[in-house]
Amino acid sequence: MIEQVLAILQGMEEADGYSVREVKTESEEYFFIRRQLDQSRAKETAHLYAVLYKKIDEEHLGSAQIEIPVSATEAEIRAKISRALLAASYVQNPVYELQRGSGVQEYYQKEDIHAIAKDLIETFHSVSDRQDTWLNSAEIFVNLHHVHAINSSGVNVKYDYAEFETEFVVDAHSGDLEVEVYRDLHGSTVDRKQIRSAIAEAMATAVDRCHAVPTPNLKKSDVVFSGEAATQIYESLLQLTNAAMLYQKISDWKPSDPVIRKPMQGDLLNLEARASLPGSSQNIPFDEEGRPAESRVLVKEGIVQALSGSKRFCDYIGYDAPLQILNYRADGGTMDQEQILQEPCLELAEFSDFHADATTGKYAGEIRLAYLHENGKVIPVSGGSVAGDVREALEHLRMSKDTVRYDHAEIPHYTRIRDAAVTGIKNR
Predict the structure, then answer these.
(1) For residue 294, what are the CA distances in angstroms to 71, 291, 308?
(2) Does 161 share its domain with 231?
């Protein structure tokens, strides 16, 4: 299919450039109710994506992205490409160059998706239910992707990579109250200990939610992130190193500049893009523009060292080192767990919704479960919300020494933010 599309593109004088990406996927899927297999299936799919470029004038280059059905006839392919080129002619982006390459680059892994699925199934079967909490259901999706990406500037890469997703629900009950907790885990290699730990944590969360009391209206409080939601905090900071954010004047993070203009009174921020992390679903040998995966220090001790971003936006700001972040690490700080939870705080463990927006700097979430650390006591609470500003939090940021991995992210186990706004559902 990709050869046919390329032959058509190479014969069309109207196209001033192209990027074509074909992805063929082998999959196995399993669905469990409690420990019983309800259904399973294996399938193969194929998708072909193309970006067409049209030169408007010496200063502008338009583009349009399409997906071409693998069943399309030659006439249908030509018609779809022609419509995309027409659409591209109305997009007046400043001119930029495509990623350049030379020769075919290939990288293949010998992955057995059936073996990965078998490991996951055996891991779930090894977890014991408790009287007050149990595994309700689980779904397993294992994929092996075969990718071929080519552009008109010489990029030609072929590679494959495996990844899985597993979703599960645990239930807990106390009296007439029953609580469900949902988890969605991603990876490439099965770490049985880590998955069993995630199931145990979900069970503990479900039980604690059964016994939680309403969150008090704290108004302002130090908060400690101790779950996966914290990845959004760090990812919003990572986005500030992206060339597109600088071009759009959303970020002012430039190499050699501090991340904030005030003295940092907490732990210094360290961020690194990583080509790979153990077990990550994003251990992909090439990025979407055909560059080999790369590790790069972006922020060191609170000082910006380098930028990330697409070839287009790096061209726009005159930065000659584009980088797509696949995996990342945020170094741990200076505090032990006991120290970070020693002073009064609200430890945020579970949200019904949470987001951190790099464009505004704001974060906000609705609390499903938190732990109020106060007067030597730890009380599970539920309800209410938390909000604040990520950039402002950097001045007094505190992080635990130990780190934890969530798929493609490695971050401090505990992240303490000063004076967040906490709206409870019970007045003190």
Answers:
(1) 36, 8, 11
(2) no
